[in-house]
Amino acid sequence: MATPKILIVFYSRNGSTAALAEAVAEGARALGAEVRLRRAREMVGPEVMAMAQGWAENAAAMNETYGAPTADDAVWADAIIFGTPTRFGGVASELKAYIDGLGGVWFQGKLNGKLGGVFGSTSSKHGGNESTLLSIYTVMAHLGLIIVPLGYSHPALFKAGTPYGATFISQGDTKKPGDEDLAVARYQGERIAQLAGRIAEPVSSAA
């Protein structure tokens, strides 16, 4: 199996989505994948960030750890896995801005046939995890990605996550992802890496 190349691009404000992203990356690397882990950048200035306690500090720390995603990252990858907190039942504007910036490589057909997945977190129960993940399914279809859902293909999914992707509820940022949440995220990385390794294999000229 060829070495799969996995791009995990996410936005996180308080760390919950970042923790899921790390677990997805761990699962992908366990299958031998080469992983690029990238954090989308803020779309607002410091005066807005100052209105939410810890936002600026958390952003600075995560930006030290994770590089900003580029269109070249998406072209490089065999699979792209998006991660986002829920914003009013939909994707965070920071991640959406990155996706919108892929128009050039999309127009050139450079994203067609790559695998796609998504994971997310929300602050409250029924806060929009599933609607957010499903909204990105639509985006992935437009980009030409092959969408990889989780279904109920692993025992962890009967305890946490969704059939659409790994999820977590932070209960007002009072909790961090637990073992069951991280198990689903790791499995998502494994599942997509395994499939990406197959599509990355060179096609025989005799085929």
UniProtKB/TrEMBL annotation:
GO terms under cellular component: membrane
Catalytic class of the enzyme: oxidoreductase
Domain Flavodoxin-like, first and last residues per copy: 6-192
InterPro entries the record matches: Flavodoxin/NO_synth, Flavodoxin_CS, Flavoprotein-like_sf, Flavoprotein_WrbA-like, FMN_Rdtase-like_dom
Name of this protein: NAD(P)H:quinone oxidoreductase
Sequence similarity: Belongs to the WrbA family.
The protein's required cofactors: FMN
